[in-house]
Amino acid sequence: MTEPLLKVNDLVKHFPITGGVLGRVVDKVHAVDGVSFALDAGQTLGVVGESGCGKSTTGRCILRLIEPTSGEVWFEGKNVTAMGKNELRGMARDMQIIFQDPYASLNPRMTVGAIVGEALIIHKLTKTDREYHDRIVELLETVGLSANQMRRYPHEFSGGQRQRIGIARALAVSPKLVVCDEAVSALDVSIQAQVINLLEDLQAKFNLTYLFIAHDLSVVEHISDRVAVMYLGRIVEIASARDLYTTPLHPYTEALLSAMPVPDPQLKRKRIMLQGDVPSPIKPPPGCHFHTRCPMARKECGIESPTLKQGSDGHWVACHLRT
Ligand code: SF4
Questions:
Q1: Rounded-to-integer distance, Cα 239 and Cα 317, Å
Q2: At 273, is the pLDDT very low, low, confident or very high (cuts 50, 70, 90)?
Q3: Ligand 1 centroid, distance to 304 Cα (angstroms)
Q4: Helices 159-171 and 189-206 meet at what angle, rounded to 10?
Q5: CB atoms within 10 A of CB 26
Q6: Per-residue pLDDT tens for 186-223?
Q7: Nearest residue CA, atom 8 of ligand 1?
Q8: How far is the CA of 291 from the centre of ligand 1 (A)?
Q9: Please, how many CA atoms are within 13 Å of residue 94, restricted to the half-sphere of its CB?
Q10: What is the spatial distance between Cα 91 and Cα 63, in angstroms, rounded to a whole number?
Q11: Which of these, 67, 93, 92, 60, lies nearest to 81 by C-alpha position?
């Protein structure tokens, strides 16, 4: 068996909350609370959950854009969490991120050519001006833009085009893993589909591995090989995309799926309405974090925290009633 490209073991990120005149730590936000998964090269893991469930923090901890509180991240057999600054800088070429808001993440004062070419200079990937220019043109064309757009500025592009610029920038260093952090969430549905198709084409062409983060199950359905569902800092279910969409095991996944539009108007799916809001990650409920909203909750759910257990082959769920 080959080793997975990425392995995340018991990742935790707590953000301290300070208060008082001395700025002491008075509490903490439990953003990520013991997340573990593995991701094979060339595969896509979709990560979904409501806003504040810890999915973006997980992605950023993997890249060490945020320092994890504890846990380990292994990439190609190397412990990323134990790396010093120099080693991490070298690793940055292999792991890239595409952000949700392409406009905010693109420097408005730089031309598109300079934005895409910045990493080529930082990592000394081209030797001559000609090579530098040709590589930028190649990257722009790879994402469906053209050479004559390289002297333009980000504000001259549409949202979808700006996201293509973000993708070209990420591709400049020929990464192996790309964290797509809500990369299509801000786009119209038709543009979302175009960008997802582009990401799929690029994956096939360059054998890319994606961690594809979104708040909506319908967005990750077609691009994901496996899907992890997160709730209040924990993975509550992880399975192949087919299993998760056809036979969900966790009541939270069932509720998310019930809210998805059904393409066939003849098909009726019963909507499961969850009561209340997602509790604060500052004081997550004891036991199963989902018990305050779960339609199937029992007494023990508020006391004992369910661990992820294998329900069927490769299908893991954290629920007292489902394993
Ligand atoms: Fe619901 Fe209990 Fe299962 Fe949590 S453990 S999802 S509260 S049934």
A1: 8
A2: confident
A3: 10
A4: 20
A5: 10
A6: 888 889 999 999 999 999 999 999 999 998 898 899 89
A7: 297
A8: 6
A9: 15
A10: 9
A11: 67
Burial group, residue 9, by CB count within 10 angstroms (0-12, 13-18, 19+) = middle
Mutate to test the pocket of ligand 1, among 249, 301, 304 (most ligand atoms within 8 A of CB): 301
The CATH topology of domain 6-94+215-317 is: Rossmann fold (3.40.50)
pTM of the model: 0.94
Query: What is the residue with the minimal CA distance to atom 6 of ligand 1?
Result: 319
Residue whose entry in the numeric block shows the structure tokens 């504000």: 155
Hey, which of 229, 232, 234, 319 would you mutate to test ligand 1's pocket, going by the most ligand atoms within 8 Å of its Cβ? Answer: 319
Taking the CA atoms of 312, 254, 29 and 320 in sequence, report the sign of the dihedral they define.
negative
Backbone angles phi, psi at 36, to 5 degrees: -135, 135
Whether residue 74 is predicted with pLDDT greater than 90 in this model: the reply is yes
Residues 83, 71: Cα–Cα separation, whole Å: 13
Taking the centre of ligand 1 as the mean of its atom positions, its distance from the CA of residue 50, in whole angstroms, is: 17
Distance CA 213, CA 58 (A): 10
CA of 57 to the centre of ligand 1 (A): 24
Q: Which two structure tokens, joined as six digits, stand for 18? A: 């300070």
The strand order across the sheet containing 24-39 reads 24-39, 6-19, 70-75, 78-79
| Whether the CB of 251 sits within 6 Å of ligand 1 | yes
Q: Which residues of 250-266 are buried (b: 16+ CB within 10 A; e: fewer)?
A: bbbbebbbeeeeeeeee
What are the residue boundaries of the structural domains of the chain, listed by start?
A: 6-94+215-317
Q: Is 139 strand, coil or helix?
A: helix
Phi, psi of 68 (to 5 degrees): -65, 155
